[in-house]
């Protein structure tokens, strides 16, 4: 019987790479997708997952099975007080996106022992590399069921691997922008668009998005929050 891996799949570059990587190893992949109420990209991400699934379906190199994706809404699973408290305590030390709290909640609610998150190496922030395996509080609460198999890879490492193994067209069917324009194009100012530019993948953004990238304002506010995590904790408690 093939081993099964739970993977948080967003239809994006990194998580799509992890899905492909596991399938080539002969592993069955159970994808999970949590609809983020703060994003406008849900339909684009789900569409990308359908397209990628179709591309992988008859590929002779794929040895594992891509199981049906479990799509859940934010309201579909319980939120736990101790996880929220741990998230707040962690945030006093370092900015961490609220989605990690949701994923910890989701894993407990669904009794998922380990789920792969496709967080990659980013030159400007080594937080995950330094802390994801810690067993002390509050890290032990938030990261208990989260696995980071790509933590030492970059997007360009993945691109080279996909070129070598013939999967570049598949991974380039992924979607990455959190705030697509009305015409369905990447915005150039959200976090994934900024990372794409910084990682040398600006070719995936249209010209207008690249212009917006150079004149962005909101992402700089996010950088301020990252540098002042206690202020973010204050804002979080006001919700």
UniProtKB/TrEMBL annotation:
SUPFAM superfamilies: Adenine nucleotide alpha hydrolases-like. Keywords: Queuosine biosynthesis. InterPro entries: QueC, Rossmann-like_a/b/a_fold. Gene3D superfamilies: HUPs (3.40.50.620). This is 7-cyano-7-deazaguanine synthase.
């Amino acid at each position: 019987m093939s081993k099964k891996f739970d993977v948080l799949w967003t239809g994006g570059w990194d998580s799509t790479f992890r899905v492909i990587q596991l399938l080539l190893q002969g592993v069955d992949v159970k994808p999970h997708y949590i609809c983020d109420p703060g994003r406008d990209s849900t339909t684009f991400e789900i569409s990308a997952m359908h397209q990628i699934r179709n591309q992988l379906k008859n590929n002779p190199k794929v040895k594992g099975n891509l199981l049906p994706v479990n799509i859940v809404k934010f309201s579909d699973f319980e939120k736990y007080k101790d996880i929220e408290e741990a998230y707040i305590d962690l945030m006093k030390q370092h900015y961490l996106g609220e989605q990690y709290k949701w994923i910890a909640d989701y894993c407990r609610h669904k009794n998922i022992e380990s789920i792969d998150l496709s967080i990659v190496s980013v030159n400007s922030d080594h937080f995950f590399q330094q802390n994801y395996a810690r067993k002390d509080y509050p890290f032990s609460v938030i990261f208990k069921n989260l696995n980071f198999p790509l933590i030492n890879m970059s997007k360009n490492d993945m691109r080279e691997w996909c070129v070598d193994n013939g999967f570049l067209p598949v991974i380039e069917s992924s979607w990455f922008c959190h705030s697509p324009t009305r015409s369905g194009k990447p915005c150039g100012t959200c976090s994934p668009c900024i990372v794409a530019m910084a990682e040398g993948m600006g070719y995936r953004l249209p010209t207008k998005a690249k212009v917006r990238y150079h004149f962005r304002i909101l992402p700089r506010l996010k950088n301020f929050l990252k540098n002042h995590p206690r202020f973010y904790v204050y804002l979080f408690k006001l919700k």
